[in-house]
Amino acid sequence: MRRLNSGTDLQRRRLLAALLLSPLFYGHMARAGAPDGSQRIVALEWLPVELLYALGVTPLGVAGTVDYRLWVQEPVLPAHIIDVGQRTEPNLEFISELRPDLILYSQGYGPRPEQLNAIAPAMGFKFTDDSRQPLTVTCGGLTDLAERLGIPAAAQAHLAAFDRELAAAKEALASYRRQPLLIFSLMDENHALIIGKSSIFGQVMDRLDIANAWEGETNFWGTAVVGIERLAMLPAARAICLNHGDDATIARVSATPLWQAIPFVRAHRWQTVPAIWIYGATLSALRFCRMLRRVEPQW
Q1: Which of 16, 112, 130, 157 has the most CB within a 10 Å radius?
Q2: What CATH number did the domain enclosing 290 receive?
Q3: Which pLDDT score is estimated for 114?
Q4: CA neighbor of 283 nearest in space, from 142, 168, 170, 124
Q5: What is the edge-to-edge ordering of all strands in the sheet holding 181-186?
Q6: Count of domains in the chain?
Q7: SS percent in the chain: helix, strand, coil, step 5
Q8: Distance CA 167, CA 36 (A)
Q9: In this structure, are 118 and 180 located in the same domain?
Q10: Of the given ranges (9-13, 235-239, 246-250), which has the lowest mean pLDDT?
């Protein structure tokens, strides 16, 4: 990613800020933010970005747009969304120039809340908590955000549609109950990131009555980084590898004797699919369900 504090990059952002503050800009495309155009919202982390889109709200600015388009991809960020710097170190001076009405952040990530509140009212969100139920926690965050924006009906409608789609997926994905399912990504040639039961996808699988093949330990976020040799110890299962554009790594690992000894590899019961953001909320959960439905006929 280009450095935010480079002279050219900062100048470009200030020119964009001047454009966004111009009444001519709003005569062309209206103010970004809530559906009635009343709020200018900057999101410093990708979880609140997803919450906004679930409510039908487009932010004015987002941190880490380049990496977002690589790692998250959907919901697609429109071209006019302004990049406000890195998620860990957003450019607070530039954000102040944008004159936001509200700044959204993920708790424990990025600048201190008091730094943000000095610019505009700020609202933080959790991905998970001690309950280890991230889907439940993020649904609560969605409701809270809708209340803050004055659009509680938008959250109610979205969550009702979400529940309906999961109920339909549960019926359509009955074949997944024949064997446990392992969801993972390759970190490098020696390590895999396992999606455990207390992850957001693990909670979705629970609602779909799909057994998670990983019974081992996980961290606070519901994932575990393990040596690839641990995969060879798993019982018979199906497996889906979330591919973050690391085709070369997958090819190298797939050629090793250790990989060939893994039960789901020997049984030809694994597939690779484009990655889905594992630290999202309901929209990521829906993408996960749709992915399962899409690959189901290929088993």
Answers
A1: 16
A2: 3.40.50.1980
A3: 97
A4: 142
A5: 223-227, 191-195, 181-186, 238-243, 270-274
A6: 2
A7: 45, 15, 35
A8: 32
A9: no
A10: 9-13
Q: Examine residue 223 and state whether it is found in any structural domain, yes or no.
A: yes
Would you state the torsion angle of the CA atoms of residues 136, 140, 145, 151, taken in this order, to the nearest 10 degrees?
Answer: 110
Locate 201 and state its tokens. Answer: 């996808």
Which pairing describes strands 191-195 and 223-227: parallel, antiparallel, or unpaired?
antiparallel
Residue 75: phi and psi, rounded to 5, are: -60, 145
Same-domain check for residues 117 and 198: no
- What is the average pLDDT value for the chain, to the nearest integer? 89
Token pair of 111 as six digits: 């600048």
Q: Which residues pair with 58 in a beta bridge?
A: 33
Q: Which domain holds residue 56?
A: 7-125
DSSP-based three-state secondary structure for 217: coil
User: What distance lies between CA 184 and its chain's CA centroid?
Assistant: 15
Could you tell me if 294 and 181 lie in one domain? yes
Cβ burial, residue 126 (10 Å; 0-12/13-18/19+)? middle
Residue 97 has pLDDT above 70, yes or no: yes
Residue type, position 266, single letter:
R
CA distances to 119, 185, 202, 209 from 125, in Å: 18, 26, 20, 28
Q: Is the pTM of this model over 0.90?
A: no
